[in-house]
Amino acid sequence: MKKYLAIFAVLFTVILSSCSNDDIPVNRSVTFKLNPATVVDNLYEMNAGDLTSLSSGATLNVDLYVYDESGTLVECDNQSFNAYTHIMTSNLDLSNGEYTVVAISHVSSSVEFWGFEGVENLSTLKITDNGYIGGKSKILGLTVEKVYVTDGENTFNIDIKNAGAVACVTIINWNRYTNVKAFGLAGKQSCDYITTNNYGDVEYSLKSKSDYGFYKVKFDYNSNQTGAMAYFFTFPIKNAAMKFFAETTGGSTNYLGANLVDDIKLGDSYLIGYDVTSEETEWYDMTPSRSTRSADNFVELVRENVPQPVFNYEEGTITIE
What we know:
Layout: H1 2-22, E1 28-35, E2 59-67, E3 73-81, E4 88-94, E5 97-108, E6 114-117, E7 126-129, E8 141-149, E9 155-159, E10 165-172, E11 180-187, E12 189-196, E13 202-208, E14 214-220, E15 227-234, E16 237-248, E17 253-264, E18 269-275, E19 280-285, H2 296-305
Parallel strand pairs: 1-9, 10-18
Antiparallel strand pairs: 1-4, 2-3, 2-5, 5-8, 6-7, 7-12, 10-15, 11-14, 11-16, 12-13, 16-17, 18-19
């Protein structure tokens, strides 16, 4: 009898153990493939490759953060590349369930253009503009989306989107004055920070001034050139107000051309220019889905004046005067 009781005890223990294992979460390898090329591939370029290539000495950083349903960070990965054309592949261990994925791309150069804090929770994640002129190196990519991990193979392909808008800015025929040391474009609004909440919603915060207190681009004047061009990144802005300016050797700032006021929309591209000789100001929407050929004549003028891109701004120049 004792022999049978021992056998039953073993069988009962095995059955309990089997039922208990069914309730233990099983982690499985989940593959994420992040594509940073989608941050820049639909943006307007004055010259092919202006934005898709990195500046000398720059590095493209791609960050992946995975949050559970409570908004707590459960996995992350960070990789660096020398071009936007690379796909970041990341294999993470996750159990079945719903997750919020945050994919970010940003460029490191001689300065860090963006600050990241509160990444341990989706509700405290904050991306802050450090306040530097950065040209194309300041372009920020951001995608937040839900994924569901289930039994079997799990591979998620994520295209990182542009987190704002990008404008090509050019000044041409600038050899008109003899007392100018710099030209540029300034605005009344500037990026401040981006936050998320536990639902994965993205919110933008802006800084604003009553005057044109934020540099967008700034060029040191060079009489051996006839103009210059560069790009700038910005968050979406309703009624963005900007104006071209010249800084004189005497230390004064003179504003040039017409007041520029319009909406800057998420994911869009713009061409903004000023002809110093004719005193004409231009602003074109170059977003592929809406762009027309109305900018063709101005583009030709720019290419005649600035055969090659001249990115002679200082990346370390703070945007706030």
